[in-house]
Amino acid sequence: QSALTQPPSASGSPGQSVSISCTGTSSDVGSYNYVSWYQQYPDKAPKLIIYEVTKRPSGVPDRFSGSKSGNTASLTVSGLQVEDEADYYCGSYAGSLHWVFGGGTKLTVL
Amino acid sequence: QVQVVESGGGVVQPGRSLRLSCAVSGVTARNDAIDWVRQSPAKGLEWVAFMSIDGGTTSYADSVKGRFTISKDNRKNTVYLQMISLRSEDTAVYYCARGRNYGMDVWGQGTTVTVSS
User: Fold this and answer.
1) Which of B2, B22, B45, B96 to mutate to test the interface with A (most CBs of A within 10 A)?
2) Of B45, B57, B104, which has the smallest distance from its Cβ to A97's Cβ?
3) How confident is chain A (110 residues) per 10-residue block, as mean pLDDT?
4) List of chain B residues whose C-beta atoms are within 8 Å of the C-beta of residue A98
5) What is the overall mean pLDDT for chain B?
6) By C-alpha distance, which of A28, A17, A18, A11 is closest to A102?
7) A3: nearest CA in chain B?
8) In sequence order, what are the residues at sequence separation of 6 or more whose Cβ sits closer than 8 angstroms to the Cβ of residue B103?
9) What is the full DSSP assignment across B36-101?
10) Which one of A10, A40, B64, B82 has the fewest beta carbons within 10 angstroms of its own beta carbon?
11) CB A88 within 8 Å of CB A9
12) DSSP state of B117
């Protein structure tokens, strides 16, 4: 199972919006609405911020939103804040009780 | 509020074995699961293994199949990851996480495994 493809970096200024893409295949992202996104600060565990493509767990700001088209999912962070600077990973169900993650994107708030 | 806490990491020589533990506390739902996910600087996050909360269903990533075994002790509310024939590429921080709605919503702090001679 190959990893999902994410850009290694993304950036934006406070108040701006930034989107991070996550490209998979017709065997994972394209086949299931089970894409999730995780935020990770240095030396901390990942935190779930989006699940089932568009849903936010309780407590996650609505500045974070998810979408999917074909084999590509996207995370959009609107109204960027300094505390959004972190690494972001996508994950997808890949069938047969297997999961796959992306390589991660480092988001810099300029 | 569910919590998971990993333990058991350490430094081990190639070819040797190690067992990780994941203590689960709090109430879980029937469709929940426990996953092991590892993270190394070279590979980022990598899903390793899955077990349904009742322990009846398991699955493994191809990279560890046949070498890693996930199991559960219901009395201790603990999930284990038995790792044998360890390789240098197994070096990583290992997290256990609760699987719910096909995502992983509760993560432990991780335990570090270093495979080195």
Assistant:
1) B45
2) B57
3) 91 97 97 97 96 96 97 98 97 96 96
4) 47, 50, 59, 61
5) 94
6) A28
7) B46
8) A34, A36, A48, A51, A52, A91
9) EEEEETTTEEEEEEEEETTS--EEE-TTTTTTEEEEEETTTTEEEEEE-S--GGG-EEEEEEEEET
10) B82
11) no
12) -
- For the residues of A64-75, what is the DSSP string, one character each? EEEEEETTEEEE
Residues of chain A numbered 34-73 and touching chain B (CB < 8 Å): 34, 36, 38, 45-48, 51-52, 55, 57
pLDDT score for B48 = 98
- Quick one: pLDDT at residue B83? 98
Smallest CA–CA distance, residue B23 to chain A, in Å, is 16
Read off the pLDDT of residues B18-58 as tens digits, 9 standing for 90 and up: 999 999 998 788 889 999 999 998 778 999 999 999 888 99
Pairing of strands B10-12, A35-40: unpaired
